[in-house]
């Protein structure tokens, strides 16, 4: 197989030693060196790990072989491939994490070299190495970051620059993780290079001489290429209008590898643009994805959650509070419902919990800026977590706003290579400061409104209208209220950028000469739904009891459990 | 002086020849032709008005002062010139103009559309991050400014290129982009732009700082302060066609959703109209009427802003299942 042999000639970037060994290109010499090096490593690889790696490698190799066969026979997918993918998924999600927990909690996995000697070279190695959680205690070193970058370059080169579609088929979860991790490492590196205070001269020199590593343009290039190659935008367009996406998929897009990578790259672009502060473009890249419908592309929960987090945040910064609230409420309900599915790995569970908290924070902010009704269960949860914070925000406490924003916002970054000679101490915080400032200004513009008791949503009925504001200023504040309460709201159409101006405020008013006419929206308590549900449950209970009475005591145990679950 | 000479000449041919000679002079071209026709007293005295008009039309057409052509073509109706030759010449001119797409009139109308199409292509895919495209995009902003057009996406692309390549940052272009964003209120384009402009530029560059201040005044509806500030900073908005009109449109929008009846004086203040010239214009645009007491009626807000009592409706389907199971 040609794809395997071409790998042996490549520069092996995984040498941790700092010596200047360069690949001579002569296989014998290199092999000799590698063997020698291997003997020097002090890592002893446990037998279990060896078996695991070999099994994993075999599975993927088999899959590749199968896929190549399929491609040559002009079939795109088949059952045996799906079986293999299922195995890989299982290995990836379960065994991998168990082994990491058991053996490598505090130390990193064995070096790439050692693994390579076990399983041989080839594309599989790239993929396996990608899996290695390279970060030892204390964060990755500069070398590790660089190597990781090269690793990704190899992988994407292989996927994008092959003559035909790459004979690879991976579980969606894994593909999402590849893209997610890619952007995360870019984010991490961008912040890392701005903190030059604790770096050695050597490191700074290294950074200075290699501006292309983790360059924003390369990251953008990768994401855009994946999107283009898979024709994902066209596919989505056709899909949402009810057609068959396969018809416009093109040679690459038909394979689920490319299709899913294309889709995940769109989410990656959404994330990247949000991190750079370009919210309009962030939502624009998703213009063909219907955010309000569940589609066949959204099977990976982390992808869903990340998407909605960034979309909600972008809406918030664009002052489309109603949209932001709707998006956050949706995704928080989703997390609530699927919470028990996430027990798989602690690392993922932590991440989702954190995003859950952040989204609650953002929802609290959005509701303060734009009071409106939301789902009861979410509202109760919100009041539990952020009840007192919301109270203080409603009174106009700017500091609480800023604290919550700092906690909940994404980690903004600057796309520019810093001037290493002259880096100010808090340079890495500047992008964040910038976004915070815009947000704070927005809050301040509405801050005065909170001092008017009339306009606070805590007061249900016609309040005593007392205020020490001069009439002129008061009149202006009324205008501001009307202006800010009219948000651009998405009503129909696919693109999430569309919208009409609407106001969903509960308290509305108009000014007639010198008189203010207030209109209050009173929503009566809904009890019908609740009663109907309870009646159904009661009926169920009754029926079960009757059955129990007839069939005797043996079924009591099972009946008991069913009823408890029903309530 | 030339006018008198034409007036005094008796014959048609002399009139025409004199006109033709004058068309070659630049000064003639710069003269506002319509202004001349406005002096109806002069025209009615002249014997050969139709020839005069024809000549002017020809001259304007040749030198592509198309704006004047359009106005001039409306002149015949004002003076009720009915000579056949005159009308036919006008017709020919119109046809000629339409046929030759290179004429300025078409150029102006389609130049923006063309640019928009070109720029749209540039912004697809990875090309939007290419700093070589900055020159085209900056020219596009110029076009927007001159022709009172607007393209948010292109402007944001420029700001992004400035973000990626700080060496290329230009204060004038950024100021123009910010001002254009203000013309699109109540959309939040201004906020979006702020998110992409570096803090140092926001604080240190004088035009940007002033424009941010103006933007803040508008967002907080301090309209009177806005107009007085604008007076002090007139130089920034010079050249931005239609800026004040757009701002007034926004102000009328806010007034429109807030007020049912408003005092004339108050409205004039908000529109920055000390001489009371603008109020009537905007009232007619929005169909607002004024009564004797000086109160302007905006909109029957009472219809839309009413206390609502949302009562729960329980429909039959949800209850039917209960009724079915009950004995």
UniProtKB/TrEMBL annotation, chain A:
Self-association state and partner proteins as the record states: Component of the eukaryotic translation initiation factor 3 (eIF-3) complex, which is composed of 13 subunits: EIF3A, EIF3B, EIF3C, EIF3D, EIF3E, EIF3F, EIF3G, EIF3H, EIF3I, EIF3J, EIF3K, EIF3L and EIF3M.
InterPro entries listed in its UniProt record: eIF3l, TPR-like_helical_dom_sf
Family: Belongs to the eIF-3 subunit L family.
Any one Gene Ontology cellular component term annotated for this protein: eukaryotic 48S preinitiation complex
Keyword Lyase: no
Domain of life according to the entry: Eukaryota
Transmembrane segments: none
Subcellular location: Cytoplasm
Gene: EIF3L
Keyword terms of this UniProt record: Cytoplasm, Initiation factor, Protein biosynthesis
One Pfam family linked to the record: Paf67
GO biological processes: formation of cytoplasmic translation initiation complex
SUPFAM superfamilies the record matches: TPR-like
Name of this protein: Eukaryotic translation initiation factor 3 subunit L
GO molecular function, one term: translation initiation factor activity
Record function comment: Component of the eukaryotic translation initiation factor 3 (eIF-3) complex, which is involved in protein synthesis of a specialized repertoire of mRNAs and, together with other initiation factors, stimulates binding of mRNA and methionyl-tRNAi to the 40S ribosome. The eIF-3 complex specifically targets and initiates translation of a subset of mRNAs involved in cell proliferation.
TrEMBL record, chain B:
Record GO biological process: formation of cytoplasmic translation initiation complex; regulation of translational initiation
GO cellular component, as recorded: eukaryotic 43S preinitiation complex; eukaryotic 48S preinitiation complex; eukaryotic translation initiation factor 3 complex; nucleus
Keywords of this entry: Cytoplasm, Initiation factor, Nucleus, Protein biosynthesis
Boundaries of every PCI domain copy: 150-313
Localisation per UniProt entry: Nucleus; Cytoplasm
Gene3D superfamilies for this protein: ARM repeat, domain 1, Winged helix-like DNA-binding domain superfamily/Winged helix DNA-binding domain
Record-level Gene Ontology MF annotations: ribosome binding; RNA binding; translation initiation factor activity
Family matches, as SUPFAM superfamilies: ARM repeat (SSF48371), Winged helix' DNA-binding domain (SSF46785)
Role played: Component of the eukaryotic translation initiation factor 3 (eIF-3) complex, which is required for several steps in the initiation of protein synthesis. The eIF-3 complex associates with the 40S ribosome and facilitates the recruitment of eIF-1, eIF-1A, eIF-2:GTP:methionyl-tRNAi and eIF-5 to form the 43S pre-initiation complex (43S PIC). The eIF-3 complex stimulates mRNA recruitment to the 43S PIC and scanning of the mRNA for AUG recognition.
PANTHER family linked to this entry: EUKARYOTIC TRANSLATION INITIATION FACTOR 3 SUBUNIT 11, EUKARYOTIC TRANSLATION INITIATION FACTOR 3 SUBUNIT K
Similarity comment text for this entry: Belongs to the eIF-3 subunit K family.
Subunit structure and binding partners: Component of the eukaryotic translation initiation factor 3 (eIF-3) complex, which is composed of 13 subunits: EIF3A, EIF3B, EIF3C, EIF3D, EIF3E, EIF3F, EIF3G, EIF3H, EIF3I, EIF3J, EIF3K, EIF3L and EIF3M.
Protein name, entry field: Eukaryotic translation initiation factor 3 subunit K
Organism per entry: Hucho hucho
Gene coding for it: EIF3K
């Amino acid at each position: 197989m040609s794809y395997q042999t071409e790998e042996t000639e490549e520069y092996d970037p995984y040498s941790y030693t700092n010596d200047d060994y360069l690949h001579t290109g002569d296989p014998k010499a290199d092999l000799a060196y590698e063997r020698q090096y291997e003997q020097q490593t002090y890592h002893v690889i446990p037998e279990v790990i060896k078996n695991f790696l070999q099994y994993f490698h075999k599975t993927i190799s088999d899959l590749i072989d199968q896929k190549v066969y399929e491609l040559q026979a002009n079939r795109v997918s088949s059952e045996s491939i799906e079986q293999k993918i299922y195995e890989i998924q299982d290995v990836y999600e379960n065994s991998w994490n168990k082994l990491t927990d058991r053996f490598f909690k505090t130390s990193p996995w064995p070096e790439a070299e050692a693994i390579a000697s076990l399983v041989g070279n080839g594309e599989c190695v790239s993929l396996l190495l990608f899996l290695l959680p390279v970060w030892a205690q204390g964060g990755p070193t500069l070398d590790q970051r660089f190597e990781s970058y090269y690793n990704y370059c190899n992988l994407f080169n292989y996927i994008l620059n092959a003559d035909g579609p790459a004979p690879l088929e991976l579980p969606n979860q894994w593909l999402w993780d590849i893209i997610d991790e890619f952007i995360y490492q870019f984010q991490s590196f961008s912040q890392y290079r701005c903190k030059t205070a604790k770096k050695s001269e050597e490191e700074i020199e290294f950074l200075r001489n290699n501006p292309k590593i983790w360059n924003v343009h390369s990251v953008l290039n990768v994401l855009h290429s994946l999107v283009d190659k898979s024709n994902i935008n066209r596919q989505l367009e056709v899909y949402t209008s009810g057609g068959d996406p396969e018809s416009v998929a093109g040679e690459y897009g038909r394979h689920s590898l490319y299709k899913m990578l294309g889709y995940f790259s769109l989410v990656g672009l959404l994330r990247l643009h949000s991190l750079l502060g370009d919210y309009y473009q962030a939502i624009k890249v998703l213009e063909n994805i219907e955010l309000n419908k569940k589609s066949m592309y959204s099977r990976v929960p982390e992808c869903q959650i990340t998407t909605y987090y960034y979309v909600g945040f972008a809406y918030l910064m664009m002052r489309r509070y109603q949209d932001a609230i709707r998006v956050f409420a949706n995704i928080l309900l989703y997390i609530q419902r699927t919470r028990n599915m996430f027990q798989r790995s602690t690392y993922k569970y932590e991440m989702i919990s954190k995003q859950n908290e952040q989204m609650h924070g953002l929802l609290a902010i959005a509701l303060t800026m734009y009071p409106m009704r939301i789902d009861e269960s979410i509202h109760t949860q919100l009041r539990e977590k952020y009840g007192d914070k919301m109270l203080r925000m409603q009174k106009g406490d700017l500091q609480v706003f800023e604290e919550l924003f700092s906690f909940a916002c994404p980690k903004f970054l600057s796309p520019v290579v810093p001037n290493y000679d002259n880096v100010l101490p808090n340079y890495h915080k500047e992008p964040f400061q910038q976004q915070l400032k815009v947000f704070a200004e927005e809050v301040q513009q509405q801050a005065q409104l909170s001092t008017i008791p009339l306009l606070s949503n805590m007061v249900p009925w016609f309040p005593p209208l007392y205020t020490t504001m001069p009439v002129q200023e008061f009149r202006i504040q009324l205008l501001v209220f009307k202006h800010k309460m009219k948000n651009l709201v998405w009503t129909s159409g696919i693109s999430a950028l569309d919208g009409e101006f609407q106001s969903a405020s509960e308290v509305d008013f108009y000014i007639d000469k010198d008189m203010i006419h207030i209109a209050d929206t009173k929503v009566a308590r809904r009890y019908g739904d609740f009663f109907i549900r309870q009646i159904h449950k009661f009926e169920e209970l009754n029926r079960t009891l009757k059955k129990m009475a007839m069939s005797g005591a043996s079924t009591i145990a099972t009946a008991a459990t069913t009823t408890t679950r029903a309530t | 002086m030339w006018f008198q000479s034409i007036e005094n000449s008796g014959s048609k041919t002399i009139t025409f020849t004199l006109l033709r000679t004058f068309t070659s002079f630049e000064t003639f071209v710069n003269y506002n032709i319509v202004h001349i026709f406005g002096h109806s007293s002069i025209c009615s005295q002249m014997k050969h008005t139709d020839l005069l008009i024809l000549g002017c039309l020809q001259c304007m057409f040749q030198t592509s002062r198309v704006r004047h052509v359009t106005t001039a073509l409306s002149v015949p109706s004002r003076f009720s010139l009915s000579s056949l030759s005159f009308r036919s010449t006008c017709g020919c001119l119109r046809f000629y103009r339409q046929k030759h797409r290179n004429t300025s009139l078409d150029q102006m109308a389609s130049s923006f559309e063309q640019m928009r199409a070109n720029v749209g292509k540039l912004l697809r895919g990875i090309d939007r991050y290419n700093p070589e495209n900055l020159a085209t995009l900056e020219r596009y902003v110029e076009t927007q400014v001159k022709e009172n057009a607007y393209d948010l996406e292109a402007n944001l692309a420029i700001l992004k290129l400035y973000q990626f390549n700080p060496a290329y940052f230009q204060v004038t272009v950024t100021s123009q982009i910010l001002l254009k964003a203000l013309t699109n209120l109540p959309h939040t384009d201004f906020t979006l732009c702020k998110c992409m402009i570096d803090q140092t530029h926001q604080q240190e560059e004088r035009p940007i700082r002033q424009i941010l201040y103006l933007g803040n005044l508008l967002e907080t509806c301090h309209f009177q302060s806005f107009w007085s500030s604008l007076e002090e900073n007139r130089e920034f908005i010079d050249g931005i066609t239609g800026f004040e009109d757009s701002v007034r449109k926004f102000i009328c929008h806010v007034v429109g959703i807030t007020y049912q009846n408003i005092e004339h004086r108050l409205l004039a203040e908000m529109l920055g109209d000390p001489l009371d010239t603008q109020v009537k214009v905007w009232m007619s645009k929005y169909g607002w009427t004024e009564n004797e007491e000086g109160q302007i009626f905006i909109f029957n807000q009472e219809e839309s802003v009413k206390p609502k009592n949302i009562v729960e409706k329980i429909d039959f389907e949800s209850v039917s299942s209960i009724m079915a199971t009950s004995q």
